[in-house]
Write a structure and sequence with these properties.
The structure is a single chain. The chain is 71% helix and 0% strand. With 162 residues, the chain is mainly alpha-helical. α1 runs antiparallel to α2 and α4 packs antiparallel against α5. InterPro entries: DUF305_CopM-like (IPR005183), Ferritin-like (IPR012347).
Length: 162
């Protein structure tokens, strides 16, 4: 098996993982491109490249190429982890596009979970209502921003939390 096939396996698996992350949304129309999901797919792809090369190191004759693949996987892992944790590339529109499927996951989980306690069911129902309302609000805001973008000179508010 050649290095091209190895690269194709990693690239295909990474793309498949990116798509699979949307399977737990409540509704198909809640699927929107998410940079965070892309960074997570790359993080998994980098990890997979390291693990697979670790197991198949002796199957590939070029030790220098093998070490380069391992180093590349580590770099992709580290860079994508930084992007996921920092959210440095995620602006307000990208944030809302990422949050719509995220909220949709809460709707799916709250709807489909087997809940017997009425207090927990009440909490789940309130989560469904809140998340659906917030999905609608984000869609409205996205549509509004497409019609009339925010002023470029407005400073961004600093991030909150750790």
């Amino acid at each position: 098996m050649g290095y091209g096939r190895f690269a194709a396996m990693i690239a295909t698996s990474t793309l498949v993982m990116f798509g699979l992350m949307y399977l737990n949304t409540w509704a198909l129309d809640h699927v929107a491109f998410s940079q965070t999901r892309l960074w997570m797919a790359l993080l998994m792809g980098g990890t997979m490249a390291v693990i697979m090369m670790g197991f198949m190191f002796t199957m590939y004759p070029n030790r220098r190429a093998n070490w380069a693949i391992l180093a590349g996987g580590v770099v992709v892992f580290a860079a994508s982890l930084w992007l996921v944790r920092s959210q440095a590339t995620v602006g307000q529109e990208a944030w809302m596009r990422a949050m719509i499927p995220h909220h949709s996951i809460a709707v799916l989980t709250s709807t489909r979970a087997t809940i017997r306690d009425p207090r927990v069911r009440d909490l789940a129902d309130r989560i469904i209502e809140t998340q659906m309302r917030e999905i609608a609000e984000m869609r409205d805001l996205l549509a509004s921003l497409e019609r009339q973008p925010s002023p470029a000179e407005a400073p961004a508010l600093p991030p909150r939390g750790p």
